[in-house]
Design a protein that fits this description.
The chain has two domains: about 130 residues, D-Maltodextrin-Binding Protein, domain 2, CATH 3.40.190.10; about 90 residues, D-Maltodextrin-Binding Protein, domain 2 (3-Layer(aba) Sandwich), CATH 3.40.190. Strands 1, 4, 5, 6, 7 and 13 form a six-stranded mixed β-sheet that branches. Strands 11-8-12 form a three-stranded antiparallel β-sheet. A two-stranded antiparallel ribbon has the order 2-3. Helix 3 packs across helix 9. Helix content is about 45%, strand content about 25%. It starts with a helix and ends in a 6-residue tail after the last helix. The protein is an alpha/beta fold.
Length: about 260
């Protein structure tokens, strides 16, 4: 009887430990480990890229570091190709994706987002000597270069374009510049940054969306404590002037509106 009771008590204790571990929220785990794990491309300037010294930097990277700072933890970045970032979130390899992720109805069915932290407006980019594409509707029957699962690729498909797969913004632009793709739809701020560094690149903007997409930080569903903590951090960043400082550093203006 004593052996049975001892075994039963051990089982109850073990169940309690397992239950307690499983009940630990993502935010609790982040705070207990002292690390906020963030996924990003590292190849999408000026949002996430490597500077001349090889250091990971960019608008999104700095926002991620500031959020971690306000959670009193360290930001740890995992870099990868865009098409694999969300899969890594599903596999719980990190806590969030911070990589200009547009808030779309399709994504909201499976994931949660922070409050929007930037507005992204799509522009249609072609080669400088291309006079056949002047509007998004002209993409029908043409090729457009994109990361396959990006919202810009879906937009190009809706206009009838065939997608030429790429691994990021720079490759997408290169395919257009060299004539291996007719066009690409991409972020206007990324394009402006690209032209600032490569003013002689043979590409041009021929059209832009009238309304931009709201961009948020992507997290798994069912993590309300983490979502609330990120939203609070974003609010504090904007209130205390940190957001404006980062925005001005990378864009020369406030891009929160």
């Amino acid at each position: 009887m004593k052996v049975f009771f001892t075994a039963l008590l051990a089982g109850v204790i073990q169940f309690g430990i397992v239950h307690s571990a499983s009940a630990e929220s993502s935010l609790d785990k982040i705070k207990s480990t002292g690390v906020f794990k963030i996924a990003t491309e590292g190849t999408y300037p000026p949002f996430t890229y490597h500077d001349a010294s090889g250091t990971l930097t960019g608008f999104d990277v700095e926002i991620g570091r500031e959020i971690a700072h306000r959670l009193n933890v360290k930001a740890e970045f995992t870099e990868g190709k865009w098409d694999g970032l969300i899969a890594g979130l599903d596999a719980k390899r990190y806590d969030a994706v911070l990589n200009q992720v547009a808030i779309t109805p399709e994504r909201k069915k499976k994931y949660d987002f922070s409050t929007p932290y930037i507005i992204s407006k799509a522009v249609l980019i072609t080669r400088q000597n291309n006079d056949n594409i002047k509007a998004f509707s002209d993409l029908k029957g043409k090729t457009s270069s994109h990361s396959l699962t990006s919202n810009y690729a879906q937009l190009a498909k809706r206009f009838g374009a065939a997608i030429v797969p790429t691994e990021g913004f720079n490759q997408a632009i290169d395919l257009v510049a060299t004539g291996r793709a007719d066009a690409t739809i991409n972020d206007n701020l990324s394009y402006l940054d690209f032209k600032k560094h490569k003013p002689n690149a043979p590409v041009k903007v021929v059209a832009s969306e009238p309304n931009g997409d709201q961009v948020g930080i992507l997290i798994r569903k069912g993590e309300p404590e983490l979502q609330a903590a990120i939203d609070k951090a974003l609010s504090d960043i904007k209130t205390d002037g940190t957001y404006l400082r980062i925005s001005t550093q990378y864009f020369g203006t406030d891009v929160s509106k």
